[in-house]
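Below is a filled-in request sheet from our internal design queue. Each sheet records the structural input a requester submitted and the sequence that came back. We keep these sheets so that new team members can see what a complete request looks like end to end.

REQUESTER: design group, bay 2
PRIORITY: normal
MODE: inverse folding
CHAIN LENGTH: 467
BACKBONE (tokenized):
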């Protein structure tokens, strides 16, 4: 079970002058009844569809059967998607398969395929992926909830032509689409070309879809325990039923972040896991928090321009990069550490041995000898958290027992639930993203999409002040 340590959000645990006053907790707890009621009401109205993803035994069976049949018959899985249709699969791969997955040989990957996720239309990345992958041995999973996103569909057109060129009419057997059950261009293509499909529940938005077939299929194809993911996620949902804020970790996390932002101007919310394996979970969180909470209008339609800025960091690497800013810069941040108790097999740091004939190692390194890399990583997290507290910087820690599918499933669901609660505290809709529409329209107009002629032509003109 994930534990949330939150004492270092409070002034009395920091330098005495920064941080939330402890009395604020009681006020937040008293207001939580209304927040919980609002979330329950909206869940009832179908807004928070992602909670229900813990109950999809049939989908898990379908995905597992599909993955067993097809996954191991292919050397490569290529995912085409963007935003919520790509970040979750990447987070699962990094967290739950061994590091450098694609660089291992078949045996090293336990005969599961490599997984490449193309989430951009950078021609260099696409060319490189298609040059490396053998079209006869690839399964291409095209993921798009709307079934029509420009970047994903452009990738699809390129990849489909590449497949057809190599395989002729057998191309469709190398494709599987994950998309809306009824709507969109992908659905149409699937019906006419006989492409296999999996459906994304209509009430689950893109950035809340990692535990739907969007994330589960790529994960299952590389051997991740998808039932374990959902078992962990279920625990997060169960804990979020608590009406007492202090017993509801996702709600408490959201409340404290909201209070830190609105009371103290701590509008930068950092997620800093102390393990490389959660690096892409931090990237996934960044999209979830940013796209969900950054809004022009509130629920009443008033112009508010709200939203905290999420930042992804990684320990211990960022101790030599962003931590200087976290320690001494403006008091505008909350740092969330993710610390894992059991990181798996450790690497001991060998003793400094005197080897006859070679120069002895400098004695100043002897403090490292006899410890381990895992120990150093843990001590660095503890030291950074304590140092931030001494400098008056708010932080909290998500403590995971291990990096099993169960723990990671709980972590992902925890964040999704926390984002929903944060939406309620900020008074905005965490499930829409109207702010990206204008850029899309200008792109369509520039690319000549019928119906968008002349839209925002002048706005799309390049900046003329260039030096
Ligand atoms: O969270 C979201 O809704 C977005 O980030 C989408 O995931 C992203 O725009 C991709 O959309 P689609 O899955 O429709 O291609």
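RETURNED SEQUENCE:
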């Amino acid at each position: 079970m994930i534990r949330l340590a939150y004492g270092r959000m409070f002034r009395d645990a920091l330098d005495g002058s920064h941080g939330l006053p402890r009395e604020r907790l009681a006020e937040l707890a008293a207001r939580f009844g209304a927040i919980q009621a609002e979330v329950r009401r909206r869940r009832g109205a179908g807004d928070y569809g992602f909670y229900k993803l813990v109950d999809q035994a049939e989908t898990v069976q379908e995905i597992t059967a599909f993955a067993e049949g097809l996954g191991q018959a292919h050397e490569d899985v290529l995912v085409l998607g963007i935003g919520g249709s790509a970040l979750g699969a990447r987070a699962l791969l990094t967290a739950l398969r061994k590091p450098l997955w694609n660089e291992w040989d078949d045996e090293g990957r336990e005969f599961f395929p490599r997984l490449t996720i193309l989430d951009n239309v950078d021609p260099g990345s696409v060319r490189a992926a298609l040059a490396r992958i053998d079209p006869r041995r690839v399964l291409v999973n095209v993921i798009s909830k709307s079934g029509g996103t420009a970047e994903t569909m452009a990738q699809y057109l390129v990849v489909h032509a590449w497949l057809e060129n190599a395989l002729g009419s057998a191309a469709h057997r190398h494709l599987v689409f994950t998309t809306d059950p009824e709507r969109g261009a992908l659905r149409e293509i699937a019906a006419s070309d006989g492409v296999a499909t999996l459906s994304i529940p209509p009430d689950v938005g893109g950035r809340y879809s990692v535990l739907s077939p969007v994330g589960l299929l790529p994960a299952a194809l590389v051997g991740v325990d998808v039932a374990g993911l959902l078992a962990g996620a279920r625990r997060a949902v169960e804990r979020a039923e608590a009406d007492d804020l202090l017993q509801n970790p996702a709600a408490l996390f959201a409340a404290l972040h909201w209070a830190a932002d609105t009371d103290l101007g701590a509008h930068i919310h950092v997620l800093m896991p102390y393990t490389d394996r959660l690096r892409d979970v931090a990237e996934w969180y960044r999209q979830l928090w940013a796209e969900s909470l950054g809004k022009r209008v509130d629920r009443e339609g008033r112009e508010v321009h709200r939203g905290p800025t999420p930042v992804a960091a990684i320990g211990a690497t960022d101790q030599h990069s962003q931590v200087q800013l976290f320690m001494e810069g403006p008091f505008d941040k909350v740092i969330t550490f993710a610390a894992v108790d059991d990181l798996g097999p450790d690497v001991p740091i060998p003793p400094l041995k005197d080897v006859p004939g070679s120069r002895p190692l400098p004695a100043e390194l002897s403090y490292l000898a006899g410890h381990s890399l895992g120990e150093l990583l843990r001590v660095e997290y503890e030291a950074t958290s304590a140092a931030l507290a001494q400098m008056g910087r708010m932080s909290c820690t998500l403590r995971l027992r291990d990096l099993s599918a169960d723990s990671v499933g709980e972590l992902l669901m925890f964040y999704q639930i926390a984002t929903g609660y944060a939406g309620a505290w900020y008074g905005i809709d965490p499930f829409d993203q109207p702010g990206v529409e204008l850029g899309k329209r200008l792109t369509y107009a520039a690319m000549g999409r019928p119906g968008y002629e002349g839209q925002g032509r002048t706005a799309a003109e390049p900046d003329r002040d260039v030096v």
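SHEET NOTES:
- Residues 49-229 form a domain with the Rossmann fold fold (CATH 3.40.50.10490).
- The pocket of 5-phosphoarabinonic acid is lined by residues 82-85, 144-146, 149, 152, 205-207, 291, 433 (CB under 6 Å).
FILED BY: M.R.
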